[in-house]
Amino acid sequence: MYSVSKTCSVEGCNRDCFVRGYCSAHYNRLLTRGSVEAHIPVVIRGKRKCKPNKKCNTDGCEHDARSKGYCCAHYARVVRHGNADACLPIGERREKVKKLCKVSNCSSVGDKRGYCNKHYLHNLRHGYPEHEYTNKGKVCKELGCSEPAKTNEYCKGHYGVYFGRAVNKRLRERRIKKNVCVKCSVPLDPKDHNYCKKCLQTMNDKRKELIAVRRSRGECGECGAIAKVFTPENMYCITCYLKKISIYNFGSVKYVTALKKLLKAQNNKCAYSGRAITLGENNAVDHITPKARKGKDTIENMCFADREINVMKKDLIPEDLIALCKKVVSYAKKP
After folding, report:
1. How far apart are CA 118 and CA 250, in angstroms?
2. Biggest alpha carbon distance in the chain?
3. Are 17 and 6 in contact (CB under 8 A)?
């Protein structure tokens, strides 16, 4: 390669030598076209320049005009903001005009499509920016409570008692593994189960108070729905009462729907005598084939019966019960 101090070997070219005695332009011609084409002058390309002695149209600006009569800085302002802002010197930023949130009574800055961050997120999640406070101005419906209602017409405390879970699931699992009380994390005795005696007593007292309040309203003591089954110790809705029967007979709540269908199939009557069954008064769930005769605890082996008939049946199968009743009737007819 030739040194940089030498010039191109082509006549009339004063450019520095690039390789093999040619400048870069003539060497590229030699490679692409096969000859340097010395009769064609080399055009030196550079930055595009405006016409000489033409200045920016903005008053007080001495920079050369580049586009539409403006310098680069003022032309960028025209494109972005619609005006050149001649009062602001080049290099200084315009202060952004802070607009308030579109929601009435909100004094936060509306920098996200006209909304503040809070109302913008609410609009994304729910489809409307402002929360509708349905419980605004209402008082908790718990008797004797004057706190403002927050959720489901209850205050924060009573809503947590009725519907919420006070202890997180993960925290509960950790405390059960450590063999401490789920609520207060006090070490448990071997006889205790998940709760210490003090917390268990407190929970029982609160539950009794809750049941008493619901009974005074005529509501189910378990879930707060309208009570339809009445027993000496509590009031129940039909679902909660059948849950109690399901737990007693099957040890699980899974059979509530099956018990509802069974009662409906029997038309709310006793399977043996046809007496009308009133839940909470004279109902009983009977094993068709008794356990003493290897009967199973399945829904197929169950039926609703009158309580007196169930006591009389004891360990008999339906055929033996009917035969016994016939003997009693035939003997009663004798003079």
Report:
1. 50
2. 155
3. yes
- Is the pLDDT score of 135 beyond 70? no
| String of DSSP letters for 272-319 | TT-PBP-TTTTEEEEESS-GGGT---SGGGEEEEEHHHHHHHTT--HH
Assess contact for 195 and 183: CB atoms under 8 A.
yes
Report residue 238 as tokens: 């039909």
* R_g of the chain, CA atoms, integer Å: 46
HEC readout, 225-269: CECCEECCCCEECHHHHHHHHHHHHHCCCCCHHHHHHHHHHCCCE
Q: Is the pTM higher than 0.90?
A: no
| pLDDT tens readout for residues 155-204 | 776 666 655 454 466 677 888 888 888 888 888 888 788 888 888 898 89
